[in-house]
Amino acid sequence: MRRSGLAQLLLDAAETGIRLYKWQRRWLDDDARFRVLLKSRGVGGSFTVALEALVESLLKPGSLTLLVSYSQRQSLELFRKLRTMLSALEGASLSWAGEVYRSVAVSAETKTQVELGNGSRIISLPNNPDAIRGYRSDSVYVDEAGMFRNDFEVKSAVAPSIVGRSGRLSLVSTPKGRRGWFYEAWSSGAFSRHTAHYTEAPHITAGELEGLRKALTELEWLQEMETEFLDEANAVFPYELILSCVSENTSEAATGPVYVGVDVGRLRDSTVITALERLEDGTLRVFHVQELRGIDFQAQESIILNLAERLRPVSIAIDRTGIGLALYETLSGKLPAVEGVTFTRNVKEALIATLHSLMKGGKLSIPPDGRELINQLRAFQRVETPSGAAKYEAPRGQHDDYVMSLALAVGAAVRRLGGGVMVSRVWAWREASEGGGSTLPP
Length: 442
Ligand SMILES: Nc1ncnc2c1ncn2[C@@H]1O[C@H](COP(=O)(O)OP(=O)(O)OP(=O)(O)O)[C@@H](O)[C@H]1O
Ligand SMILES: [Mg+2]
Fold this sequence. Notes:
CATH topology of the largest domain: Rossmann fold
Number of strands: 16
Bound molecules: adenosine-5'-triphosphate, magnesium ion
Mean pLDDT: 85
Distance between the termini: 44 Å
CATH class of the largest domain: Alpha Beta
């Protein structure tokens, strides 16, 4: 039986009401050892990975399948998809095997695994090359492969894991620029290529698409839904740089001094708050990002007051340009730590330069699940004006509120560090890092 046939049988037995789409059947029935799936957001990529892992485990008793995700949270979520399928199947009678498959879940901090009645195991791992290296696997799936901060390390860990067993490798992702392992796999010719466009996944309704169109910027839409690999030419923050700052330390509790940046919404009526803490080695760790959309200023004010009460920041930098002035004025009357920042071109440039240097020096830590922040950072551009000066901004019609909120928080932290001589301090980091060379492959 073809894999798609068995997959459909499982879905029917679990009474999901789901009929596999054409792209899913093509993907499931492709016997190639190396496959790559380029997909729009939300089409069912992770779902298909979980389903296929189950199918392959049933077809090959005693096999080992690894599901690799870019963050701890994602790996748990992927595993939850698998568990949902398994529990729906529990008690269901599958006529083809005449055997009841019992599932045994072992949940631990860093890995999650299930063992089927036929001895096959499926293990869901977060982004951890050492853990991957520890296994000999029959099949490895890398979900959202474009989102890995250390994708080439993962690549070199996967290779030894699948040799010897003629293991298969599948990369599934929405594109993230013309860079990295996923793009390399897609363009190398060595992988069997598949696509899943949102028009081939009708569970995404016209209403949802319309909502997404409004919520996403043009560039985000092209990338996330039209599956375009965007080029990095004008990017201030290339993906390689952004992903090098991603860290799994996502604790909401801060122990070091806290700095907050508040970008007051103009474009789309949303205000973004970023809180970061300074760690002992000087790294600024983003631990809280909050978007207030469609909330009036009075409510915004009380949210910020509550946050300040809870986090006790050393400093809160608020954008007081234009519409931000009112919020700045009321808050500065109530909180001692408020600083107002007026976004002139020079101020903005200095903030961005500081953020950039910090990132190059490896002194910024951002959470892997901060997709909106990551996308906005990537979209941020350096544009030459007709006079020859540089302007830093989101492309036309796009948002930079997450970026500016972060830049404000970083600016506040760095100002406090050097008592006003922030730029020289940050440039020193940059030079240090350039001298030391990069750990990423070119
Ligand atoms: N053939 C199908 N028919 C109907 N619904 C489906 C089908 N395949 C998948 N789905 C549904 O699509 C939804 C999205 O699935 P999933 O989260 O796996 O997508 P994804 O591509 O991984 O999304 P993201 O880009 O957010 O990671 C799920 O609710 C899943 O049940
Ligand atoms: Mg997914």
